[in-house]
């Protein structure tokens, strides 16, 4: 039976090798498995996939949550519940920035919300991207995602640095401590808020409970058809 010594895995900083590093998968025995892909081999072999491009030293998702949370608190990013968010949108010209995938946004979103994906499907087919696809497939995920490299540029094209923004995703995390989560819990929207404040946005809020709670509370939802 094959044995895996290392493999590309999603969401971990160690899964982002630099351009000079290689992703190495060692296999032994008569059957070769590589992230769920099966082929035959007659002897022990070593599969090496080299990155075709330099990756960021540490994508926003891989920065330690405690470090992100400290900056969010320092920049006075606070959570607002869905009813307060609706009031701020109507009375104080706040913009809801929906960072979910475009397909989810089109299925239903708060009226007036702007969509910029924080994560998107992996698009390229470089050796590095193929390795990441294999890593996702190993865990049964066949639609692997990556941090959107155009996120901040897309936001800047729609909202200036003085804009009052409420960042939202599906169910959201929280910066509020609980007994089980003394440092809260990160989410796509909090990662997006972190990227925004890093890039000079000054009025950033976070939607507690996300679009799920917004819909559950019976607040206005609109959808878009292709």
TrEMBL record:
SUPFAM superfamilies referenced in this protein's UniProt entry, alphabetically: Rhodanese/Cell cycle control phosphatase
InterPro entries hit by this protein: Rhodanese-like_dom, Rhodanese-like_dom_sf, Str14
Domain Rhodanese: 90-223
A Pfam family assignment: Rhodanese
SMART domains assigned: RHOD
Protein's name according to its UniProt entry: Rhodanese domain-containing protein
Organism, scientific name: Brassica campestris
């Amino acid at each position: 039976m094959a044995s895996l010594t290392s493999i590309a895995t999603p969401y971990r900083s160690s899964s982002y090798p630099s351009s000079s590093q290689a992703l190495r998968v060692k296999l032994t025995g008569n059957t070769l498995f590589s992230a769920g892909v099966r082929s035959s081999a007659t002897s022990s072999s070593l599969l090496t996939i080299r990155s075709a491009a330099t990756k960021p030293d540490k994508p926003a998702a891989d920065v330690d949550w405690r470090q992100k949370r400290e900056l969010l608190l320092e920049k006075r990013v606070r959570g607002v519940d869905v009813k307060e968010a609706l009031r701020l949108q109507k009375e104080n010209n706040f913009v809801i920035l929906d960072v979910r995938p475009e397909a989810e946004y089109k299925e239903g979103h708060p009226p007036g919300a702007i969509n910029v994906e924080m994560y998107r499907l992996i698009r390229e087919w470089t050796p590095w991207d193929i390795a990441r696809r294999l890593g996702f497939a190993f865990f049964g995920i066949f639609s692997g995602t990556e941090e959107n490299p155009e996120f901040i540029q897309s936001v800047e094209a729609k909202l200036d640095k003085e804009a009052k923004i409420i960042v939202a995703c599906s169910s959201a995390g929280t910066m509020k401590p609980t007994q089980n989560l003394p440092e809260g819990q990160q989410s796509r929207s909090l990662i997006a808020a972190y990227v925004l404040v890093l890039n000079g946005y000054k009025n950033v809020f976070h939607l507690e409970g996300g679009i799920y709670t917004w819909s559950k509370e019976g607040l206005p939802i609109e959808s878009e058809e292709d």
